[in-house]
Amino acid sequence: MLKNYFKIAIAVLKRRKFFTFVSLFGISFTITILMVATAFIDKVVNDTYPDKKRDRSLYVTKLELRGKDAMNGGGLSYYFIKHFIGSIKTPVKLAISSNWQGTNTYINDKKIAINYKYTNADYWDILEFDFIEGKPFTKQQIDNAERVTIITEDIKKQYFGNDDAPVVGKYIEADNVKYRISGVIKAVPITSYNFYSDIYLPYTVSNANFNDTGYMGIYTAILLAPTVNDVAKMQREFNQMAKKIPIPDIKQWDHLNVFADPYIDSYVRSGNENKSGMVYALTALTCFALLVTLLPTLNLVNINITRIMERSSEIGVRKAFGASSRTLVYQFIVENIILTFIGGTIGIVLSFISIQLINNAQLIANLNLTINFTVLGFALLICLFFGFLSGVYPAWRMSRLNVVTALKS
Amino acid sequence: MIKHLFKLIWNKKKQNFLLLSEIFISFMVIFGVFSFGVYAYKNYMAPMNIKYENVWVINYSNTLKTENADSLEMFYSSLKQNIQALPGVIEASYTSANFPYSTSMMNNGITYKGKQYFGVNNYRVDDDYLKTLGGNLIEGRWYRKADGAGKERVIVINKKLKDDVFGSGSAIGKYIDGNNSKDGRRVIGVVDDMKNFGDYQPAKYGMFERIDTSYRKWVGNMLVKVKPGADAAFEGKLYKTMANALKNSNIEIEHLDDKLSSTNKFTLVPLIILSIIAAFLIINVALGLFGVLWYNINKRRGEIGLRRAIGASGNSVSGQLVAESLILATLSLLIGSFFAAQFPLLNVFDLPAMVYVIALLMAVVFIYLLVFVCALYPGRQAANIYPAVALHEE
């Protein structure tokens, strides 16, 4: 039966080349846009380089103090993380790292802009960066405040030139200080803003005053649970601890909000607890998807109706010979889904091309979009949905066609 | 005639419903993109009033241990003098972190005669700020050294704030946040609006406050105007000068023109992506419209043949078909304009009403053109129908 439908669908497609072109154009272009968007979101949300232990981790990125008519949101201080977050028992490791900050370095009268990030030793245990050469700095080196650093491949190329000679043990100058290179890693795109940097330094070499007991600062934390099953327990313990944190400056503030979230929640957390980042992100995505699909769908519905009306004599004959409305609707939807899948295949090819173009243009350094099974799965789902949506209404119209009028024309 | 055509469309309202909604949604999309575009263009045409070429910004952190305001003041004024004395430096000025094209914002509110004005950007600057950035003074004067010693609190505001607070009259000598020199601040100057947020964003309310000794320790940025042709070697020298003076400080030098282009990207990139998507959507719609109109006209061969047979010219037949499509478009546009008009009326997104009106008109013209072009070819085809052939089929 399906084989028959397939044959009919192909025959219909061949008959009106212009309509076929319009349909396929609409479908493939919509699929392309949605696929590129999905690939981008998938890269940002699901890429597990370098935090491969994401399912065991919770992320603390923002702290918010709220008063009657004031709000202060931002990163955490080292003291806050060590003193309060460090007090809970479940995590086996606690990674602490600063936001990235910019500085310049000048080599051979050339300027290189460098972003740096301070980290502790656990950071390198929780996050599994790919080391191209060398190794992370040790706890011992951090405690001794040794001037060591881990640099990315890109900075190695910029600073030492394009030859592949190893640079471990050499020195790189940043912020007027010379650091000995202990390792070179594969870079992270800036979209993973929790991990992005050009060079990584031990937190002990920063000039900050670690005796300062203020809460706000430039640091974020990652908590690693012993197993996946302990994450919920760790989150509960964190929330209990958070309730007991004394609020500084009672006159000005009455609430202190700090959360340990799974990666995605922490990624979209806006720093303002009155507005959930997740709701924002989802609304924006839905609006975008609706905007992109609505017009092509309407267009397709229009074209499909036109097509069906053209075939009214065929439908009349089939109805006269006893085909039920259900069979006809079913046939038409299948035909339409076949059409969408052909369009979808073209769309996938087009997305491959556009993703190649985007990657080559290096719009965002180190962000290499890929089409993986998740993205492909999404594309199939979109096709199915699309085909169904644009087929149902025309099929319904068709099934109500009067046999006599259909045969007469 | 139009009434007659209207009746024809009304009789087929069910068939035309989908076509109507398609044109309606296309109109809304086009309206959105045009609003965005017109707004960006309008802002782009406004003068920048900042001479950003060859202006660099040094970001540093205050690492001095002393809390003594006077010794801080001494240290930083001599540091500035050292920078100004470097050959290749024309002018230098301290500024708070919200210098032009930075992402940082500091907002305040002011009151004048009991009325409050919110969202005033508060720039903390020094005596050479205006010279360094090449801004224009419209009336009054800029800060000078004596302002630091005087007891009276004075303030410089920008034109946009002045126009909204004081109207067309002069603002000089008037007080904001109070009525007299005791609790108010006297306006001493008005500067032309600077587009601090890039080429494609409008100037906002702004007031400039002189950095006083109590604020000194929070300042972490210095703008430096250098001579044309200053290179990386000179930049390295500047960097070393700063680093030697401020031990343990994190220092970064950025160029305002680079910052401007990256700020512009924040407006332009979404606009370009939106336009590309909208263009594809419109091509899609245009092809679909073309196909459907063509088919509809083909279905009416009998009717057209009859009209030709009783003497209608080819032109009048194709004219009728094009006019029918345009009336169809008009119906969609009426509904669309109703929705689009809500944007300026309800002040959604805070854009000036003028932008919406221009975008609306442009979108209406665009949709008419689109429908006209799509109906033209099918209309001409219909004009070529021979009455004998068409009627024979019946």
Structure, described:
The complex is a heterodimer of chains A (409) and B (394). Helix content of chain A is 49%, strand content 18%. With 409 residues, chain A is of the alpha+beta class. In chain A, the strands form 3 sheets. In chain A, strands 5, 6, 7, 8, 9, 10 and 11 form a 7-stranded mixed β-sheet that branches. In chain A, strands 12-3-2-14 form a 4-stranded antiparallel β-sheet. In chain A, helix 1 packs across helix 11 and helix 2 packs antiparallel against helix 12 (373-399). Chain B has 394 residues and is an alpha+beta fold. Helices cover 55% and strands 16% of the residues of chain B. Chain B contains 12 helices and 11 strands. Classes of the chains: A alpha+beta (409), B alpha+beta (394). At the A-B interface, helix 2, strand 5, strand 6 and helix 9 of A face helix 2, helix 7, strand 11 and helix 8 of B.
Question: Care to count the β-strands of chain B?
Answer: 11
User: Secondary-structure element order of chain A, as H and E?
Assistant: HHEEEHEEEHEHEHEEEEEHEHHHHHH
**Largest beta-sheet details of chain B:** 7 strands, mixed
Shape assignment of chain A: elongated
Counting DSSP H or I runs of 4 or more residues, the number of helices of chain B is 12
Residue runs with pLDDT of under 50 for 5 or more positions of chain A: none
What's the layout of helices and strands?
The complex is a heterodimer of chains A (409) and B (394).
Chain A: H1 2-15, H2 17-46, E1 57-60, E2 63-66, E3 71-76, H3 78-83, E4 93-98, E5 101-107, E6 110-119, H4 122-126, E7 131-134, H5 139-143, E8 148-152, H6 153-160, E9 171-174, E10 177-185, E11 199-202, E12 216-217, E13 219-224, H7 231-244, E14 255-258, H8 263-268, H9 277-310, H10 312-320, H11 325-361, H12 373-399, H13 403-408
Parallel strand pairs in A: 6-11, 8-10
Antiparallel strand pairs in A: 1-13, 2-3, 2-14, 3-12, 4-13, 5-6, 7-10, 8-11, 9-10
Helix pairs in contact in A: 1-11, 2-9, 2-11, 2-12, 9-12, 11-12
Chain B: H1 2-11, H2 13-45, E1 55-59, H3 69-85, E2 89-95, E3 107-112, E4 115-125, H4 129-133, E5 137-140, H5 146-149, E6 154-158, H6 159-166, E7 175-176, E8 185-191, E9 206-210, E10 221-226, H7 232-245, E11 252-255, H8 256-299, H9 301-309, H10 314-346, H11 353-383, H12 387-393
Parallel strand pairs in B: 4-9, 6-8
Antiparallel strand pairs in B: 1-10, 1-11, 2-10, 3-4, 5-8, 6-9, 7-8
Helix pairs in contact in B: 1-10, 2-8, 2-10, 2-11, 8-11, 9-12, 10-11
